[in-house]
Structure formats: structure tokens, C-alpha cells
User: Fold Inositol-1-monophosphatase/3'(2'),5'-bisphosphate nucleotidase from Acidocella aminolytica 101 = DSM 11237.
Amino acid sequence: MTDLELAKIISEGAGKILLELRATGLFEGKALGKVGDRMANEFIMTALRETRPDDAVLSEEEKDNADRLSAERVWIVDPLDGTREYGECRTDWAVHIALSIGGKPAIGAVALPGLGQVLLSEPQPLPEIAPKLRVLVSRTRPAKEALAVAEALNAELVPMGSAGAKAMAVLRGEADIYLHTGGQYEWDNCAPAAVALAAGLHATRADGSPLVYNNADPYLPDLLICQKELAPKVLEALAKVPA
Assistant:
């Protein structure tokens, strides 16, 4: 089984667990998110231990192990990206399964269980750019930089939940630009970045520098995903935003 096939199977399995848990009606809101995080993480960690025992793992829901820093292959996972949205019975949440090789986002699967879809790090057709650009922003905390860029580009705002859902919205043709500057961790964007890059999208830090993974500090605060022809315009507009 290839790494990509494995990532797909694990993301689908975790998504199924989360959907089935929510359907029981035993938990709601934050309690549902907490239990879902734990159950999905247990499934993912067990699957990786059994199928890739020699690889390191960085998971949002596990205590970090510094041994990963000397590993070439590191699985970077977020068992439930968008806990709030999951607990609110929305569809804009995701499961992230990524493999970083040599610090690069090499393999990725982003499951959108609420939509019955898994997007993988493989070549795929890109949607057309909308005549009026659409910029994704947080449902609850839209960053000033994204708002400023949207204004500079005369773009429409598209509020959405999890990082994975927003990143995949660009690939799904629901929006054109995902600019995040409000703080993230490696597990928030490694799988989305891998999928975006494989599809031929632009995926970098907000200053245009490459995304590098498996760092001692997993804090990776910003991200830009868009079609390549839009990247210079976004970066130029962002550079003009007051600090």
C-alpha cells in the first residue's frame, strides 16, 4: 500500500468514526468535539503504528516526542480540524493526514466527512478563477490582513470553518484565495498544503516563503493558498497592510 493510499484510508476511517459518534446523539457541542478528537486520534495513531511503525508522528492530540526531529518521515495529523463546526453539526470540518518527508509536505489527505469527500495530494483539474475574487475568512475571527487584502482586490468575503475546509474550498471552486495570518500549527496546514501543491496551486507562508515542517516548535502561524496567477497580487496587497 502506498503512503497516499494509506493516508486516504486513515482519513476516511477517522471521518466515519466522527460521523457515527455524532449520529449517536450522546454528546453535543464542546463535549462532542472532545470525545471526537480522542476517538479519531486513537484510530489514527493505532493505524500508523501498525502500518508504518518506523515513521514518526506529530499529532495535535498527542504529547510531542522530540525524537521526530531526527526522522526523515514524519506523519503530521489533525484528527479533527474544526472542532467547533463538528460540534455544531456543520459540514466545514476536516480530518488531516499528511506525511512530511525531509521537511516538505509530500503526501496529504484532507477528508471532508460532512461532504462525503476526500481530497488527495495528486494532480487534478483546477477550477476557474471567479470574475469577482472570493477570499476565505474565519467565521468567528476574520484576520485584519485577509480583510485588507480582500478590500484591495475588491473581493467578496467567504466565511468558513476549519482550516482544512477553507483550503479545500479553493480546490473545490468555492473560493479563490485562502490567506490565514491568525496563527496555526503544522497539523493545521500540512495536509492541506500537500494537497494544494500537488494540484498545482500556490501554497506558501504569507510572505511567500516555503512551508517547512517537522520543526522543533510546530507553530506555523500563516498560510497562503490560491491559484498561482493570483499569488503576486495577494502578496503585493499584503505587503501594504500596516503591521
In short: The chain has a mean pLDDT of 96.
